Amino acid sequence: MAGNLVTGRMQLRHGREQADAARALQRRLEVETQARTERDARREASITYLSIVGTFQMTCRELAIEMAGKPSSTERADTLYEQFLARWQDLSAAYAAVQVLGPQEMSDASVALWNAIASLQHHCRGWYTDLRKRGEVNNRWGPYEAKNSELDSAYEKFAETAREVVGPSVAITVSDI
Q1: What are phi and psi of 125, to 5 degrees?
Q2: Alpha-carbon distance 38 to 168, whole Å?
Q3: Which of 42, 55, 80, 131 has CA 20 to 30 A from 120's CA?
Q4: 10-residue block means of pLDDT along the chain (177 residues)?
Q5: What pLDDT sits at residue 63?
Q6: CA distances from 21 to 10, 16, 27, 28, 135 (A)
Q7: How far, in Å, CA of 155 to CA of 148, rounded?
Q8: Chain centre to alpha carbon of residue 156
Q9: CA 53 to CA 57: how far, in whole Å?
């Protein structure tokens, strides 16, 4: 009878160990799933942000080319400026997503990119406003190019940081835009 009792206790202990191991495995899988979900959300937010930044940058370039060309009417510039404003609104939402999902290094890189975008946006907006107020304005292509170059650098830095945080699938580069 004592042998049966010992055997029963050993089986009970073995059953508990198996249950503990199963719970530990389940918890590890939950943690891995959560980490994968966070990484995927960060990856998606980064790709979206970079894509919208690229679209905004192309819209700025089209607007700058139009304004630098000394247009006889502002109709085309007006249309491009409306697109410019719409892309700016898109950027705000994409930027917020990256900020919320960050880790700190990704958040910091997105702030640097946002500042470069804001600088370019401010330049183009001022150039357009002067064009609308005065008609012909001094060509501001040189400062535009400098701000655009700063944006390219911040874009690359954010893309690099995003790849470090979420993995190499964030492979959009300046040459892609």
Answers
A1: -65, -45
A2: 15
A3: 42
A4: 64 73 72 78 92 95 88 82 94 91 90 96 92 76 94 96 78 48
A5: 92
A6: 16, 8, 10, 10, 76
A7: 10
A8: 11
A9: 6
Number of residues that make up the chain: 177
**Does residue 172 contact residue 50 with C-beta atoms inside 8 Å?**
yes
Q: Which tokens hold the place of 153?
A: 């650098």
Helix (H) or strand (E) holding 5: helix 2-68
CB 39 within 8 A of CB 167: yes
Torsion angles phi and psi, residue 169, rounded to 5: -75, -10
Q: What share of the chain is helix, strand, coil (3-state, %, to 5)?
A: 85, 0, 15
What single letter denotes the amino acid at residue 120? L
pTM for the full model?
0.77
